[in-house]
Design a protein that fits this description.
alpha/beta, 11 helices, globular, binds adenosine-5'-triphosphate, binds magnesium ion
């Protein structure tokens, strides 16, 4: 087993990164995959949404782990990794991660601290998902440097234009300077309200603008209060509202993600022959 690592990124806040990480991760686990989700946001929304209501009281988090990597202190096996009862593992975060981001500036190989850590757990999982913070700072660069691919959630109520261009430039730069194998799995439309023409227009516009260059997932995540509620329930949408349209759409997204991975494996083995 060697995990495929996917960074869920967008420097715009509140576009559904965390919700997507949690529900795609649990969706993949329901398909029999071994999944680790890394909370790489000092706000710790993912940790909270997975049931850690007081992340700042945790001793071992991605922050303490990255500090150990920086100081060359060996890690215990599975250090800090928590199990969620819907079948995934996750590494929580807390506010200390913002201090780590500051200290990275003076660290050797500062872009690859997260990668050094993930290399130690990669063989235990099929997928590692990284929930990024809404910024293109050092933490996100670490995520991009250690990922095989990125998923970009885009909120359908707003025109993403400029922000998206900047994000794509950052991905291109990381690919050139740090991580040549970095791919874009796709743009994911989130919080889609199909009752409004505006949301439909943005979806269509995005597909027209980027569809040729970048995959836009066929699956669109609908707007629903049931999805918003999962930020605090400690449960995924699959147990909170299993028959709802959001559970359905995250199931479809899971299938698309597995399909991309299968195609890539097939492609790899064909080149290898
Ligand atoms: P941040 O940039 O702050 O990390 P984010 O990109 O991780 O934000 P989320 O936290 O996943 O975004 O979602 C932002 C808010 O929107 C949350 O309150 C969440 O519960 C809500 N939300 C997420 N997905 C949906 C949806 N499909 N329908 C309605 N609300 C949603
Ligand atoms: Mg988030």
């Amino acid at each position: 087993m060697k995990a495929k690592t996917i960074a869920v990124v967008n420097q715009k806040g509140g576009v559904g990164k965390t919700t997507t990480c949690a529900n795609l991760g649990i969706g993949l686990a329901q398909e029999g995959k071994k999944v680790l989700i890394v909370d790489l946001d000092p706000q710790a929304s993912l940790s909270i949404s997975l049931g850690q209501s007081q992340p700042d009281t945790l001793d071992t988090t991605i922050a303490s782990i990255m500090n150990k990597v920086i100081s060359d202190i060996p890690l215990e096996p599975n250090e800090g990794i928590l199990a969620h009862d819907e079948g995934i593992d996750f590494l929580p975060s807390n506010i200390e991660l913002s201090a780590v981001e500051v200290s990275l500036v003076n660290t050797m190989s500062r872009e690859s601290v997260l990668k050094q850590y993930l290399d130690t757990v990669k063989n235990d999982y099929n997928f590692i998902l990284i929930d990024c913070s809404p910024s293109l700072g050092m933490l996100t660069v670490n995520a991009l440097a250690s990922a095989d691919s990125v998923i970009i959630p885009v909120q359908s109520q707003y025109l993403p234009a400029k922000g998206l261009e900047q994000l794509l430039l950052t991905v291109a730069k990381v690919r050139k300077q740090l991580n040549p194998k970095l791919m874009i799995d796709g743009i994911l439309m989130t919080m889609v309200d199909n009752r409004t023409n505006f949301a439909k227009d943005i979806c269509t516009l995005l597909r027209e603008t980027y569809g040729g260059k970048i995959k836009v997932f066929n699956t669109e995540i609908p707007q629903s209060v049931r999805a918003a509620e999962t930020s605090t329930t400690g449960k995924s949408i699959f147990s909170h509202d299993p028959k709802g349209k959001v559970a359905d759409s995250y199931k479809n997204l899971t299938k698309e993600v597995i399909k991309i991975e299968k195609l890539r494996q097939k492609h790899k083995s064909e080149i290898g022959r």
